[in-house]
Amino acid sequence: MATQFYTGSSLDGFIATPEHDLGWLTSRDIDPAGPMHYEAFAEDVGALVMGASTYQWMLDHLGEMGDRWPYEQPTWVFTHRKFPEPPGDIRFASGSVAAVHADAVAAAGEKHVWLVGGGDLVGQFADAGLLDEIWVQFAPVTLGAGAPLLPRHLELELKEVARNRDFVCARYDVVR
Ligand SMILES: NC(=O)c1ccc[n+]([C@@H]2O[C@H](COP(=O)([O-])OP(=O)(O)OC[C@H]3O[C@@H](n4cnc5c(N)ncnc54)[C@H](OP(=O)(O)O)[C@@H]3O)[C@@H](O)[C@H]2O)c1
Fold this sequence. Notes:
Residues 74-152 form the Bacterial bifunctional deaminase-reductase C-terminal domain. By secondary structure, the protein is α/β, with parallel strands linked by helices. It has 5 helices and 10 strands; from the N terminus they run E-E-H-H-E-H-E-E-H-E-H-E-E-E-E.
């Protein structure tokens, strides 16, 4: 089973503004049943991993998600912070990503591990040789600055590309 980074990005390679705003992304048009969209991807997700800023964004926007944590799958959050009692099946971790990856793969069973972001955390998995695929929906916008998509030099192989309304969607394998 694969370890996948699936994310939206600006054309110039940022996944959030410097203020962690995602309005430039969530305001765009995408077909939920269209090519390479989240719903089909999410069916095969068995475990999630994210960093502290991404988790904080989720907590700050729970109201837009029906006031409930949207994932039933186990989720690992990398952080040094002390967060309040989590709203779902959330485990906090820090340090090396390898042990968490092994636990997430075991929890995911036949399904995939979704690295939600941010980019440097995904880079830590890549550094350890644990990143298999990158799926990016490129929004028609440049931001000029912000949270980087994946601040590493990785060689990739383009496996699939599609247009979904406002977005160019691309899927890559990481070449090891
Ligand atoms: N466009 C999209 O689809 C998309 C997808 C995902 C995320 N996002 C957004 O992108 C932004 C990402 O923010 P970000 O670049 O700051 O990345 P992040 O990975 O969400 O958060 C970074 C933080 O994670 C913690 N962390 C990372 N590696 C760690 C490790 N090995 N051990 C312990 N803690 C570790 C550290 O937090 P501490 O402060 O606790 O040390 C670090 O400051 C967020 O605004 C998020 O909402 C957008």
